[in-house]
Amino acid sequence: MKLPSSIKPDNMKNLVNHFPQLLSTLQIESSILDAAREFHKDGLNGICFLGMGGSSIAGNYARALLSKESKIPISVTRDYLLPTYVDDKWVVIAISYSGNTEETLSSLSMANETGSRIIIMTSGGKMAQESKHPIIQLPEGLQPRAALPLIFSAVLPVVESLAGLKITDFQYLEEVLVNKSNTWNEWLSTPQEIAESFIGKTPIFIGSRHLAPVAYRAKCQINENSKALAFHSELPESNHNEIESFVKTNGCSILPVFLRSGLEPTKINRRFDVTYEMYHEMGLNPINLSASGDTRLEEMLVLTHFLDMVSVDLAELRDVNPVSVEKIHELKHRLNI
Ligand code: PA5
Known about the structure:
This protein is of the alpha/beta class. It is 43% helix and 14% strand. It contains 13 helices and nine strands.
């Protein structure tokens, strides 16, 4: 498949600007969805994602989004090993943008041995040589993390088919995201303003339920694009541990960034409000970022698009290149992989 001609793969801001278009660019072959429906009919015990870094996050998005509807477990593995509970009644979705990631190749080879049904998503490399399994072909030339909208737009319909659920139409989401991004400054703030507030601070993104993977994605984007330290955590769990760490911060300038949903159930809403209040009293000056959208999926994608742009704006402010991942390459080189 070819990318739209306006896409410049070596320009991260251009890629983030095209996030909405990338959601509706990839056409999944009907044979893949047919195969997924067949797997569903045969009876499945679960779906396990294999992948690392930018290639793994779509699995977390699908898991969080479908947690209420899916009757089968969805797990995400970021390791050399395939969990032992994954057997021939599971479907494994192995994703590696490059197709050469050591950990993913290893867990994929274990999945081959257990006889699990396998679907592969890659742009090339060794994984593209796997002729036994259906392959969703990604376009070459992007950074894996910039391919999230492409990957997710294929992952979600496949998982929905595997779980026997109605398939999401991604065409309308492009329009939703474009409209929302035109009014970011009215309902949120500008990405530039948020990026400025991160200077000299270490953001900790805190989400709950469907916004928990968005918090994790934001942390990874700040690490890789902005070359800056960031963390993530999840409510209600962090109310039972992390909250104590701010009693004595020893001058570390943590900036809690709460990712709020308009669809929060009362108990979660109350926890966010009280946690904000307490962090504020502890002198932390937390930020609330409220997602805007009619559905959980819209909220996830709108906020991801916004925070991806924050990471690129922060890279500009810090004068670093958001595309290069020199240290990741150096490490792979030192490990001889
Ligand atoms: O965003 C990145 O560049 C990394 O997080 C990669 O996704 C990670 O190193 C795994 O590589 P790949 O996505 O090619 O499997």
